[in-house]
Design goal:
It comes from Lachancea fermentati (Zygosaccharomyces fermentati). The protein is of the alpha/beta class. It has 17 helices and 19 strands. The chain has helices spanning 4-22, 27-33, 45-58, 88-92, 99-110, 116-124, 126-137, 164-182, 236-242, 260-267, 302-305, 326-336, 350-355, 357-365, 374-378, 385-397, 477-495; strands spanning 38-41, 62-65, 82-83, 143-145, 155-157, 187-190, 194-201, 204-211, 217-221, 225-227, 272-273, 278-285, 309-311, 344-348, 369-373, 421-434, 437-439, 458-460, 465-466. The strands form five sheets. A five-stranded parallel beta sheet has the order 6-2-1-10-18. Strands 12, 13, 14, 15 and 16 form a five-stranded antiparallel beta sheet that branches. The chain has a three-stranded antiparallel beta sheet with strand order 3-5-4. The chain is globular and about 95 Å long. The structure holds flavin-adenine dinucleotide and 2-acetamido-2-deoxy-beta-D-glucopyranose (3 copies).
Length: 497
């Protein structure tokens, strides 16, 4: 006979053994296998995604090196949103989509360039990327827009005041900062710290070299490095080399966008692909207060996706399907509009204003768009106010669109006349995104010229990498690429420990 007290002891003993064998805490296992932190280069969405996945999911410590004084790179400027196919937001809004349809849109847009396996992975994992942002960081991402080249509305943003890039970057960087405060061994963030070289020995990453805020050269020992250093759209030197025909165009990119990662990785033997593929976004705002500035504020593609149209200044008429892919809309502006000016008008209805109010208020505040009337705006065009009203009405009501635009939402009010309110900005094509970069595989490993992984422990994600977008990137797919491949790099590091 076992006494009641013995039964309790036995139960406690079994529970203790069970706990020893199956304790869920992986962090102690981790630190024994990984003595050095993972180094992440760049604090845009790719770096922040890799960092959060490593730290929160796998308890792997990181050092984040950022050369600018502030975090977020170009990611923080994103204004249209992030793509996802077959998401809960789409379901809630009754949008039927499929990963295959997204894949086909991506391939069609890529014009035969890029790496199909990466494009497939991007589409396949788009829904889980959006879910990750919603669940781990409490982001709503409850609204959709249909951008150029997409056959469904699948570009997500949140209702509320913050633009998508800012909202997402803030949530992910705040998460890392708060872990860093509680547990400095887990997350170290150095800003004003520019990575200049890597040390690779015996086929394996050994260290990274950077210049710190005081201009001093420093070394961090590490066996894992994830390059998330962004594109090269601001570098006249690199544009001159890869796309000399574009070097005279203004850009939307921040001054830090100089292709450091591409240069460092190429020098080490990395395979750069599609480097000549530079995306010119059709709509950068011309600031009336500084028309010739080389830096332009982006007129988000959502402005067209949610209803904006383009008018040719020399005819006062539409000239293109505004929701064709970016390369085609840009070509139309360059060919049809006055070539010495390279500009067009972006015209929006009162209901575009209502649907995109926070952004529109910001553009109004910056004086990049103005609230005006049909008759006032007609003064700037070679056509009469009646002809302008007719042009806007035809667009809004025609059964078949003259330019084959299939999505016409938030059109101009019925019975539009000379007194109707419209919103108008001036736009010009701008260097926006560099599709090319260092070749990666589906594990986000950097690939060398011989087609093999360049070094053990070397990864890249985001705009620094090439192959995801081929010859033309779809709007919303860059933020997506950052989340998908940033997390993939983290998963790969974990799986090889
Ligand atoms: C105005 C604008 C609007 C956009 N809107 C959208 C949108 O709505 N949807 C979408 O999908 N995409 C959009 N894009 C594109 C997208 O924002 C970026 O291409 C994408 O976020 C790139 O992310 P990333 O993490 O790869 O690089 P980035 O966000 O550019 O971050 C790279 C970081 O690396 C740092 N860095 C570079 N070199 C070094 C070095 N040597 N050492 C240390 N740090 C270094 C940089 O300072 C930078 O902070 C937009 C781009 C712009 C410019
Ligand atoms: C970065 O550097 C500046 C000083 O240049 C400092 O004020 C700022 O708080 C630093 N940290 C971050 C995370 O931005
Ligand atoms: C994408 O998903 C399809 C269908 O589930 C699958 O057959 C394919 O292997 C996936 N591709 C990648 C690259 O993950
Ligand atoms: C115009 O823009 C350029 C480049 O961004 C800037 O250097 C210059 O100060 C601006 N000029 C005015 C008048 O704002």
């Amino acid at each position: 006979m076992i006494s009641r007290r013995h039964k309790i002891y036995l139960a406690l003993f079994c529970a203790f053994i069970f706990f020893i064998l199956y304790r869920p805490n992986t962090s102690t296992q981790m630190s024994s296998k990984l003595s050095l932190p993972v180094v992440i280069v760049g604090s845009g969405l790719a770096g922040l995604s890799a960092g959060n996945q490593l730290v929160s999911k796998y308890k792997i410590p990181i050092v984040l090196l950022e050369k600018a004084s502030t975090l977020g790179g170009n990611s923080i400027k994103a204004s249209s949103g992030i793509n996802g196919a077959v998401t809960s937001t789409q379901k809630a809004l009754n949008v039927e989509d499929s990963t295959d349809l997204f894949y086909q849109d991506t391939v069609k847009s890529a014009l035969g360039l890029g790496i199909p396996a990466l494009q497939e992975k991007l589409s396949n994992e788009s829904s889980s990327a959006v879910t990750w942002l919603q669940q781990e960081f409490d982001l709503k991402l409850d609204l959709l827009a249909q951008l150029g080249g997409h056959s469904r509305p699948r570009t997500h943003r949140s209702s509320g005041k913050l633009p998508p890039g800012f909202e997402i970057v803030k949530a992910l960087s705040d998460a890392l900062k708060s872990i860093s405060e509680e547990n400095p061994d887990m997350v170290t963030i150095y800003n004003n710290s520019k990575v200049v070289d890597l040390d690779i020995e015996k086929g394996k990453v050994q260290a990274v070299q950077y210049v710190d805020e005081n201009g001093e050269s420093k070394v961090i020992k590490t066996n894992h490095i994830v390059f998330c250093s962004g594109g090269f759209g601001y570098s006249t030197e690199m544009l001159e080399k890869y796309a000399p025909q574009l070097r005279h165009l203004p850009t939307t990119n921040g001054a830090q966008t100089t292709g450091d990662g591409q240069k460092i990785l190429e020098k080490l033997g990395g395979d750069l692909i599609d480097m000549t593929q530079v995306q010119v976004h059709p709509t950068g705002f011309i600031d009336p207060a500084n028309r010739s500035s080389n830096w332009k504020f982006l007129a988000a593609e959502a402005l067209r996706g949610l209803g904006g149209i383009l008018l040719n200044p020399s005819t006062g008429r539409r000239f293109v399907n505004e929701l064709d892919t970016r390369d085609k809309v840009t070509a139309a502006i360059q060919e049809d509009c006055p070539q010495d000016e390279n500009r067009a008008y972006l015209v929006m209805s009162e209901s575009v204003y209502a649907e995109y109010k926070n952004n529109m208020d910001f553009y109004l505040f910056k004086k990049l768009i103005k609230k005006t009337t049909v008759s006032d705006f007609a003064q700037e065009l070679p056509i009469s106010e009646d002809d302008l009203s007719k042009e806007l009405e035809t667009y809004s009501t025609a059964k078949e669109d003259t330019f084959g635009r299939s999505l016409r939402v938030n059109t101009f009010e019925s019975g539009i006349s000379k007194d109707s309110t419209i919103y108008v900005g001036e736009i010009t094509p701008v260097v926006h995104f560099t599709m090319g970069g260092v070749r990666i595989n589906e594990n986000a490993e950097v690939i060398g010229k011989n087609g093999e992984a360049l070094a053990e422990g070397l990864y890249a994600a985001g705009e620094v990498s090439g192959g995801v977008h081929g010859g033309n990137r779809l709007g919303g797919s860059s933020l997506l690429e950052c989340v998908v491949f940033g997390r993939t790099a983290a998963n790969s590091i974990m799986s090889k420990l």
